[in-house]
Amino acid sequence: MSGSEFSYLQAQLQSIAQAVLDHARTAGASACEVDVSESFGQSVTVRRQAVETIEYNRDKGVGVTVYLGQRRGHASTSDFSSAALRSTVEAALSIARFTATDEAAGLPEERLLAKQWNDPDLHHPWHLPVEEAIEIAARCEQAAFDVSPQVQNSEGASVSVQQSQFVSANSLGFMGGFPGSRHYIACSVIAGAGDDMQRDDWYSTDRNPARLADPVAIGDYAARRALARLDARKLKTRKCPVIFEAPLASGLIGSFTHAVSGGALYRKSSFLPDSLGQQIFPTFMQIAEKAHLPGALASSPFDDDGVATHDRDLVRDGVLQGYFLSTYTARKLGMETTGNAGGAHNLIVRPGPHNLDGLLKEMGTGLLVTELLGQGVNYVTGDYSRGAAGYWVENGEIAYPVHEITIAGNLKTMLAGIAGIGNDVVVHGSKQVGSILIDRMTIAGN
Questions:
Q1: pTM: predicted TM-score of the whole model, two decimal places
Q2: What does residue 220 show for φ and ψ, rounded to 5 degrees?
């Protein structure tokens, strides 16, 4: 990929967006919004020191949404020619003509649109020749094999390099866009022999390749995680405290964000209805949304509707201060958008004083969960039941690995029962949180 660049300049994407808006106005649309984007990248996987896959991707597209009053139609194309753009607008208009009126449909209020913003620092190209990507992946995997002869097999080590850019615009005069990048290095290995085989993995991802973890360290850690799971036991059914390791803790916060998002709320499919201003977490819980962190994975000066984003306290002293609302879902609820069309922007859960070892000592005896299986979450009732694996902890120390168990509870009770937050934050996405200690859950085993 050395020397590869975008096929279009930002100015060209803006010109395409403006052409769509002009076509829509001429064709009779009362309002229009358009997204123009392109992306490219490469991914390499090495397995057992041999190249398994080399993949290149290059995509582009235009998405057009038109309104006839409060009737909405959407169409898309990957053809940037003027004729294709006109046809896409006509297709969207045709859909709108046969769509029922929706009182919540339409563009945002003009006063809420982003007017100006600083460079979000999200674009850090990694001009990585494929030969070097292969070498990095091979070093990563070899580091895992070097840990122990018990690391006998591999699901591969991968290196991915991705870049993208976009322009969003609407007929109210908003037009904005910027380039971005996201890269990762990952390794997954299998340890053991005979019937006792365990796999585990680790990865590092960032917009800036300079901030990626060392590939040797990634492979080494993946191997040690797999080795630590050997000789796993089952547990007898019981109730006890549970720690969700940091990568899984972000999923727990994700369940919370889903429940307080506009789509779930207006459809009445949330276990946290009418929760604004209510105590959801213990009083020590603080969650902030930081939309403008330079270089962060979920930063953006505006949301998918073009509405300006803002930093805010989402949870203060355990009390919910706001929902996640787009223009549409806000109208469905009779509220105002929070600038979250497209999701949350860098949720920061304030860490506690302890790292994972300290959190284990605080728990004393209980379960450390490092892997979850299945999708047993009911967002309407909050009932939570998932297959799990991890480690049994006694007197604040890991005693032995466990597997083939199920952890169960209710999300509302689990969130209220958070007893500690670690400072061992691992940033893999839009949620930044350390390991989470829940005071009590049901463990189903033998």
A1: 0.93
A2: -60, -45
